[in-house]
Specification:
Elements (H helix, E strand, L loop, with lengths): L25 H11 L1 H23 L5 H11 L2 H6 L11 H28 L1 H5 L2 H6 L7 H27 L4 H28 L3 H25 L11 H6 L10 H21 L25 H28 L9 H6 L1 H7 L4 H25 L1 H7 L2 H6 L5 H33 L7 H9 L2 H17 L6 H19 L3 H5 L16 H24 L6
């Protein structure tokens, strides 16, 4: 006599786990995300409040300067500044609080929106793409646990940043209620884009697609906000189509109203429900929109490491160069208005320390060129460290298993990232020069502006080489290059204000870049930066040839 044991019925994809639900394991995943990202989350949580802390002194010092505040209000009402900051409230009787809200909200929203998007994609679509989510799901973890845990963490981080930022504002004698309203409004707007990323993660099959789609929505929101604010004073109905405008329309420090934030809360709830519904209707590991099938054989032009790297980075290069180019073009149109503010700027201790003495137009242009270089540097670091992501995902191992040498593989990444960095820099400088020329600025000339920007290229290659060398020798220490990047920003912007000694300034690669707008070019410094860049690139190749490659 034989007996058979019936197999247990398979659990449907939306059926709760035995003794649990589709949210089982959510809090365990929340703790895991917090532990895994503790460094980057702490950096974001402290970075934004420190940004306020660094920016507020220039506003506070103008509190008793009514003429200076009104001159600043006139600048905020110009078309270029409306595009770069927002609709501008309280300009008739400008106050420090109104200046902070008008000039900082947009940029903090953009920064936190990018953080929210990257954090969401990192713990949803990227985890499925790498197959780590499949291992997690093999435990007692519900289908929706990862999505909900990610949303909880991103929301919590935005709220922590909002509370800390409000504390910094209140500590600088700004109204408590308005400060809290402004920072919470920013958090709601940023979280809206995080919820958009949750939906995008269900639609696409790859993390790059989810990030690209989310960033495209962010770019569209910025464009709609700009168009709406340019159409009418204080914005038109088009502005309200953008989550960015919801934070600005709260009118903190001028005529506070809370209900625009409620629009964001409703949008977040709807997007989270949509993400949950979409997650229930797609195959695990796949997206609602499957990848288009490609040809069986690659074209001859795609059969090299450089072609593969170019295919991975070309869209990010396109959108970075385009986005930053538009911003620098708009910035260039503001330069013609600097002479009208000369007296006010010279009387402000912060501006005096930043701009120095002499021609304010050239000094202001020098700072904008520096900003363009920092933007190009950030792109270059991200592009270079793409090699680390390829290794961690196991794709580098597959590539090196073919007749491709380590030098050729790493060299492809460095060539593409270096050229991309130069393209972002040159595009930004040309856009800045075009904006200055269009606004009637003829001195310095477009050629002089272009020269000032090109002189930053060796310093940019130093940062790229440093990132490559750290990756090649100590992959776990690549985060140090971002500390160098941040230190460079502090030195270039606040060295005189903080009274940093000469040796502390010389650590920054940008310190050695000659300012051709206000002085002579020291070609010895340029040659020295080129030599350092070459040494770092050689160190990168030497280190990568000697260490083990991570395997999966």
């Amino acid at each position: 006599m034989s007996a058979t044991t019936a197999a247990p019925p398979l659990r449907g994809r939306d059926e709760p786990l035995r003794g649990g639900s589709t949210l089982t394991g959510t809090w365990s995943l929340v703790r895991f995300i917090l532990r895994r990202d503790r460094v980057r989350l702490v950096a974001w949580s402290l970075g934004i409040p420190l940004l306020y802390l660094g920016a507020l002194p220039e506003y506070v010092l103008m509190a008793d300067d009514a003429a200076g505040l009104q001159a600043r209000a006139a600048l905020v009402q110009s078309p270029a500044m409306i595009a770069m900051t927002g609709p501008g409230y309280g300009t008739d009787d400008y106050t420090v609080g109104a200046a902070v809200a008008n000039e900082l909200v947009l940029w903090v929203v953009l920064a936190l929106a990018v953080m929210s998007i990257l954090q969401v994609v990192r713990h949803t679509r990227a985890e499925e793409e790498s197959s780590r989510a499949e291992l997690v799901r093999a435990a007692v973890v519900g289908r929706h646990a990862a999505v909900v845990a990610t949303a909880i963490v991103v929301l919590a981080v935005n709220l922590v940043i909002a509370l800390l930022s409000a504390g910094v504002l209140v500590a600088n004698d700004l109204e408590a209620v308005d400060s809290l309203a402004m920072t919470l409004g920013i958090a709601v707007s940023a979280m809206t884009f995080g919820a958009v990323a949750l939906v995008a993660a269900q639609v696409t099959e790859h993390s790059r697609g989810a990030t690209g789609l989310s960033m495209a929505v962010l770019g569209a929101a910025f464009t709609l906000r700009t168009i709406g604010d340019m159409q009418e004073v204080h914005g038109s109905w088009v502005s309200w189509l953008s989550p960015i405008a919801w934070a600005q329309q709260m009118r903190s420090y001028v005529d506070l109203r809370w209900w625009p934030a409620a629009i964001g809360v409703v949008a977040i709830v709807l997007l989270l429900l949509a993400a949950s519904a979409l997650a229930s209707r797609r195959d695990f590991g796949g997206g609602l929109i499957p990848d288009r099938r490609g040809p069986a054989d690659a074209r001859a032009g795609l059969r090299s490491p450089a072609a593969v790297v170019w295919g991975q980075q070309r869209m990010s290069l396109l959108w970075t160069a385009l986005g930053l180019g538009v911003m620098w073009l708009a910035t260039g149109t503001v330069i013609a208005q600097i002479p009208a503010m000369t007296e006010t700027l010279q009387e402000n201790p912060v501006y005096s320390a930043l701009l120095g003495e002499g021609d304010l137009e050239k000094a202001f242009l020098g700072i904008i060129v520096l900003y363009a270089a920092l933007g190009a540097a950030a792109f270059g670091l991200v592009a270079t460290l793409r090699a680390k992501a390829e290794e961690e995902a196991g794709r580098a191992e597959y590539a090196l298993a073919t007749p491709v040498s380590r030098t050729r593989w790493l060299g492809a990444t460095l060539v593409v990232s270096s050229i991309g960095t130069a393209v972002v820099m040159v595009t930004g400088i040309l856009a800045l020069a075009a904006g200055a020329a269009a606004s009637g600025v003829h001195e310095p000339s477009s050629g002089a502006i272009a020269e000032a920007g090109l002189l930053y290229l060796p310093a940019l290659l130093v940062l790229v080489g440093l990132a490559a060398a750290l990756y090649a020798w100590v992959p776990r220490a690549t985060a140090l290059v971002w500390l160098v990047f941040g230190y460079t920003l502090v030195v270039e912007m606040f060295a005189d204000l903080f009274g940093l000694p000469e040796w502390a300034r010389q650590v920054s690669p940008f310190w050695w870049v000659p300012d051709s707008l206000t002085g002579d070019v020291d070609w010895a410094h340029v040659g020295g930066l080129c030599a350092v860049a070459v040494v770092l690139f050689l160190l990168a190749f030497a280190g990568f040839r000697r260490r083990d490659i991570a395997t999966r």
